Amino acid sequence: xxxxxxxxxxxxxxxxxxxxxxxxxxxxxxxxxxxxxxxxxxxxxxxxxxxxxxxxxxxxxxxxxxxxxxxxxxxxxxxxxxxxxxxxxxxxxxxxxxxxxxxxxxxxxxxxxxxxxxxxxxxxxxxxxxxxxxxxxxxxxxxxxxxxxxxxxxxxxxxxxxxxxxxxxxxxxxxxxxxxxxxxxxxxxxxxxxxxxxxxxxxxxxxxxxxxxxxxxxxxxxxxxxxxxxxxxxxxxxxxxxxxxxxxxxxxxxxxxxxxxxxxxxxxxxxxxxxxxxxxxxxxxxxxxxxxxxxxxxxxxxxxxxxxxxxxx
Length: 313
What we know:
Blueprint: H1 3-18, E1 24-29, H2 36-49, E2 55-60, H3 68-80, E3 85-88, H4 97-105, E4 110-113, E5 127-130, H5 133-148, E6 151-158, H6 164-180, E7 182-190, H7 195-208, E8 212-217, H8 220-232, E9 240-244, H9 248-256, E10 261-265, H10 267-282, E11 290-292, E12 295-299, H11 306-309
Parallel strand pairs: 1-2, 1-3, 3-4, 4-5, 5-11, 6-7, 6-8, 8-9, 9-10
Antiparallel strand pairs: 10-12
């Protein structure tokens, strides 16, 4: 058992021992509300809250993932109004640690989704629900080698440097390519999860590197901007483009052959399981310390399958 697992388990047991089933608001706070991915988390959270009358659910987030101070304030506000529990997708691994500690000190269970907090938060939240981002990054890297070959240049279009999901996803993608191919990496470039920024960055990368054999857009707004730049440059189908997440734009890019494939997370499951985990904690139950919400590599061949439909949004 890892130290993280022992710490989370002890923390969850402590909340279970407290026992009192606490009714009230469960605050779901995500990195931004301006993204289909996070709106799909909202849908999952709503599904979890339906069919029971003991708890209500609120959903909020900043206007942009880079507005970290705004997210901190949203958590502060939730604590101040005495919510029963919090589901949090932290936009920064360090900046959210003090408010999560404060929630814990106030007896409010916190379930973290999508991105890990820094080590300083150990013992202050009760469960972590996420895609195994390292495993997902490796899966995308395997597909890149399979489709682009083992030599040439691959550009990495990333989002926010240092975010837990980015470290695992892009880090393990990079490490796998370095260990298992002779592909040369261009970047990573960071879009700050802004589609327009990703579009401009990709346009520049394509212009400066006409010999690219592959390109990876590591989250939804980045991959959408990347895809649009590829279309505008007339490069669709001329290099292996792989995305991450599964909104309508990315699905259309797959169908049109702009993207070879996109790795889609269980965003609905993050919201649904996140809220259910808080409800279990409030009922005095013990919970798993880590819940993997999974990833599906969606391409033209499987996009209409049940497996893909369950994760696309």
